[in-house]
Amino acid sequence: MEIIYGNTLADRIKADMKQKIDDIRAEGARLPLLSVVLVGNDPASISYVRGKEKACSSIGMLQRTIRLDENVSQKELNDVIMSLNLDSEVDGILVQMPLPSHLDETAALELIDPQKDVDGLHPMNAGCLLTNRPGFIPCTPQGVMAMLDSIGCKDLSGKRAVVCGRSNLVGKPVALLLQNRNATVTIVHSKTPDIEKIASQADILIVAMGVAQMVNENWVKEGAVVIDVGINRVNGKLVGDCDFESVAKKASYVSPVPKGVGPMTVCMLLSNTLDAYHMHVQGE
Fold first, then answer.
1. Known catalytic residue: 282?
2. pLDDT band for position 284 (50/70/90)?
3. 258: cis peptide before it, omega within 30°?
4. Model-level pTM?
């Protein structure tokens, strides 16, 4: 059994991006800029944004955080998003979720210019993914696919993939990405009967259920590749949706939590922003 360390892979990808940004700086051109909109004082959101700020800084990418009061109106939030859409210096826009309950998250996401939607959550980008056209792909699913690439799982013809979870953020998009690689894909969720039996037939098992250590060796086919997207805190310790020690008995490859998918998610956000920059520069 081998461990797929997302943090190591992310470091390699970020080193390559840093070199590209160093080259841009040497040419005297403007640098890529990611703008993050943070509403309120949710500790988890603040921590996530701080991580994105640090990641941008590590590769020389410009980053700007717009902090808004938790009582901000929908109109005020919309105005901020529209101003970023119109700002030619801004390449990527990310509205940190969740928003306070009085704000409409869907309306905010739909207002982002699809060409600056580096989170890949705008309906236009979702539609591009569905129809296998170029567009921004959500960061976590994109990170999962990069992890599969790193172990040689590129053409998945003849492979059966099972995705545990059906969220718009992970489950659905990663299922489409696997299908675009020619895998035969099944999505299972909390209402699926015999979920363990179905999962145990997978050559590639992607787990994004949001239930700590739910998946054990009984869910895993001998020699399967298991990617654990879950992140849960149990007794002060971060754990995934898989019982790592149990799953490792049968998997050929497995990703850990932490140091697995999480670092890849942030890395793909930077990658999308750099792609947006090049698209905007070419269009100027």
1. no
2. low
3. yes
4. 0.95
